[in-house]
Amino acid sequence: MESKSASSNNFIKTIVAEDLAAGRVTEVVTRFPPEPNGYLHIGHAKSICLNFELADEFKGRTNLRFDDTNPVKEDVEYVESIKRDVQWLGFEWDGLFFASDYFGQMYDKALLLIRKGLAYVDDQSVDQIRENRGTLTEPGVESPYRNRSVEENLDLFERMRKGEFANGEKVLRAKIDMASPNVNLRDPVIYRIVHAHHHNTGDAWCIYPMYAFAHPLEDAIEGVTHSICTLEFEDQRPFYDWVVEHCETEAKPRQYEFNRLNLTNTVMSKRKLKQLVDEKVVDGWDDPRMPTISGLRRKGYTPEAIRAFCREIGVAKSYGVVDERMLEHFIREDLKLKAPRTMAVLRPLKVVITNYPEGETEWLEAENNSENEEMGTRRIPFSREIYIEQDDFMEVPPPKYFRLFPGNEVRLKHAYFIKCEEVVKNDAGEVVELRCTYDPETKSGSGFSGRKVKGTIHWVEASQAVPATFRLYEPLIRDEDEGEDSSFLERINPNSLETLEGFVEPGMKDAAGQDKFQFFRHGYFNVDPKDSAPGRPVFNRIVSLKSSFEVGKA
């Protein structure tokens, strides 16, 4: 679904068009630069769509680049998952790069800064540097090592490179202005010592550039024209520009910031998502309750729905929170003409149609999608015994209850009228079976008009019904405020997952992983690609059928 406002709610697109028209750039080059320290989530999808679609629209290029400057938190598993997610969303990168590809060049730029008197080796601890940084209203305190000679700094930095010092013993800092009103310019650390194996460079390095120093250099090396970041990097832009200027890069990339995606009832912190995985609150990064791209894929979301959602929410400078129902709207819109509409009984109640011939089965015609005739029809069995939903029967119904109750008649979807004649209970007084009669004159499609009923219920024929597991989801976190407190685990929704055992039509016996269906009255479901087995499918509910949400009226 293409948003009506897709061409007008993206201020970065306007900047790119103006840069091309004015000749400031001749080819648009963007990049998606994730850190490989976790799986991507829906917020990253917004950035992916923005960078790749901008370049595509203006016939430019987009690189996928891994900002792998912290070997302690990075892993090849994350690298592969990120590549998989980008491709699943429908994008192909022009260049695949790693920050670690440029470690040698970054080291040379650090030496250049030292020689220019713009960087120095500091022996203070991380805590001391933090304490001496100052506040928003008070300037920082200069390091006692700030005025080391160029020669001494070159010697110490080379020895850091050779591994002569322990982790945290020394750092390299840019020499800018400890009294700057922007704390990001108060001699930021640009290199630290980390004796750890790196997934890409092995043990070749024991010093690693800080992200804020590496990022502008990576952009410059790759010739990126528009370096697009989220708003939390806005205060770091002056340092970005400082690095580009004083490291004398040939290319001069520019950084632009946009609002990150925040969804209601959703954790959008990679650190918190990792905590959920590590503490086994969820079943891995691809748990369908997770807002990760892999979790959304396993739940049943489509790349088309996610891309349409990202276009609709737009790109702006202001902070905001998007209603999660908006994302659900787009998967409904995408699936309503694609998904076959079948019947599933999630909480089965047995019905015996006493006047239907024993041992007989007939096959009924049912359309696959009433809104898309091209999807054709299917044949479903009908016999003396069927399953219906438990909540489609009430022994003592309230007013305006039009489903099944003693003496009432309803239509079975695609089949006949049935009337409840008898209720069978177990020793605990629970209803375990209904005895009904059917009217053979009321077959669907026969043109019968002798009388009307107000209720239509769905069902599955009992002898050929396929046992199935159904997983119903609610938000994992209630009212997540994205604060820095660690109590977000206290807001775990205990009802985030409900598992039911029921039945589906026999034609769904061999449904494959990621096959999607609309179950009458229940919603859209996806065949779980990990837990389903031949003849025993597991269905994840993607979304219910209806929502009060309207696009443009959030």
From TrEMBL:
The keyword ATP-binding applies. One of its GO terms (molecular function) is ATP binding. Keywords: Aminoacyl-tRNA synthetase, ATP-binding, Cytoplasm, Ligase, Nucleotide-binding, Protein biosynthesis. InterPro entries: aa-tRNA-synth_I_CS (IPR001412), Gln-tRNA-synth (IPR004514), Gln/Glu-tRNA_Ligase (IPR050132), Gln_tRNA_ligase_bac (IPR022861), Glu/Gln-tRNA-synth (IPR000924), Glu/Gln-tRNA-synth_Ib_cat-dom (IPR020058), Glu/Gln-tRNA-synth_Ib_codon-bd (IPR020059), Glu_tRNA_lig_a-bdl (IPR020061). L-glutamine binds at residues 67, 211. Its EC number is 6.1.1.18. It is found in: Cytoplasm. Coiled coil: none annotated. Residues 27-336 form the Glutamyl/glutaminyl-tRNA synthetase class Ib catalytic domain. It catalyses: tRNA(Gln) + L-glutamine + ATP = L-glutaminyl-tRNA(Gln) + AMP + diphosphate. Residues 339-439 form the Glutamyl/glutaminyl-tRNA synthetase class Ib anti-codon binding domain. One of its GO terms (biological process) is glutamyl-tRNA aminoacylation. One of its GO terms (cellular component) is cytosol. ATP binds at residues 35-37, 41-47, 230, 260-261, 268-270. This is Glutamine--tRNA ligase. It comes from Cohnella xylanilytica. The lineage of its organism: Bacteria, Bacillati, Bacillota, Bacilli, Bacillales.
